[in-house]
């Protein structure tokens, strides 16, 4: 071995060790506040792992499906969960790979989530159920109704994902990106850099919230913890998301299903009006309702307005 080769190997080893140490510190700091802990946690033993959920209230069943971005979990609905339970039996789940649910090292797809929702409704809820879904989870709600319409009542979508983006399939570039994120040390380091508290603060300020004053420390802690709970296995959903494996074309399903579908959308989200109009063009019976001065999460920014609208729709 030459001196130059030995130096390169030593530096490579040092870099790997440094990234490993940073990774462990980041995971330790991210979960110290127990932002997702709750005495009401329940678990559904599904075929690919345990799915954490909470349940409250009486009345017609309502299932809440959170967004699929990094750090997402059922915490997203914490400002409307209790109020909804006054008139409904509400179920809020952490979908597999998110929150406090199990995070197996698999490729996460839209079909996987559709099947998990169908099984959850049949085996846990046991009744015809309405669904409230946010962002990327909107496609799961639509495909669930298309695949097993008898178990679904009404559907409410909050800022559903742009149909053009849902049509994008995995490419060589996105497959390589998934492969990178899946790698043990370097991929984990890259993942940790995009899931720090400051990274979430920037993302929420620029894209998710219209009013930065609504971005509380509690929200940041919950998303940071979800993205690192319990350890680096939390990155596998992010890898699948960036690889476009969660995307699915729902246009055919939108045209075919005859369920009541409502869309609630933030007026300040970029190109949101155009995205909503695309849904209406494929299913004119869909009704859409704007929530002013909000972006991706109107139920976190203006929860009272969203609850009033849901009270009318459901």
TrEMBL record:
Keywords linked to the UniProt accession: Hydrolase
Claim: Manganese is one of the keywords in the record: no
Taxonomy of the source species: Bacteria, Bacillati, Bacillota, Clostridia, Lachnospirales
Domain of life from the UniProt record: Bacteria
Molecular-function GO term, any one: hydrolase activity
AB hydrolase-1 domain: residues covered: 62-286
InterPro entries in the record: AB_hydrolase_1, AB_hydrolase_fold
Official protein name in the record: Alpha/beta hydrolase
């Amino acid at each position: 071995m030459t001196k130059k080769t030995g130096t390169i190997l030593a530096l490579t080893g040092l870099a790997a060790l440094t990234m490993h140490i940073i990774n462990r510190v980041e995971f330790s700091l991210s979960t110290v506040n127990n932002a997702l802990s709750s005495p009401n946690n329940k678990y559904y033993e599904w075929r690919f792992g345990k799915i954490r959920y909470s349940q409250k209230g009486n009345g017609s069943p309502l299932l809440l499906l959170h967004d699929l971005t990094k750090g997402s979990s059922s915490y997203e609905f914490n400002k409307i969960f209790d109020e909804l339970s006054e008139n409904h039996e509400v179920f809020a789940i952490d979908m597999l790979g998110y929150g406090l649910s199990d995070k197996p090292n698999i490729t996460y797809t839209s079909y996987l989530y559709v099947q998990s929702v169908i099984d959850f409704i049949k085996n846990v809820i046991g009744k015809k159920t309405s669904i409230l879904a946010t962002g990327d989870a909107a496609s799961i709600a639509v495909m669930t109704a298309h695949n097993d319409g008898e178990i679904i009542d009404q559907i409410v979508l909050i800022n559903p994902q742009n149909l053009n983006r849902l049509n994008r399939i995995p490419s060589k570039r996105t497959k390589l990106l998934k492969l990178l994120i899946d790698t043990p040390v370097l991929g984990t380091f890259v993942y940790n850099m995009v899931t720090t508290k400051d990274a979430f603060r920037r993302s929420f300020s620029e894209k998710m919230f219209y009013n930065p004053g609504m971005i509380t420390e509690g929200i940041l802690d919950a998303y940071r913890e979800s993205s690192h709970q319990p350890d680096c296995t939390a990155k596998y959903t992010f890898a699948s998301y960036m690889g476009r494996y969660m995307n699915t074309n729902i246009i055919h399903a939108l045209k075919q299903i005859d369920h009541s579908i409502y869309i609630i959308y933030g007026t300040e989200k970029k190109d949101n009006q155009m995205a909503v109009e695309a849904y209406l063009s494929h299913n004119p019976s869909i009704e859409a309702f704007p929530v002013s001065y909000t972006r991706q999460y109107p139920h976190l920014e203006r929860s009272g307005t969203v609850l009033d609208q849901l009270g009318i729709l459901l």
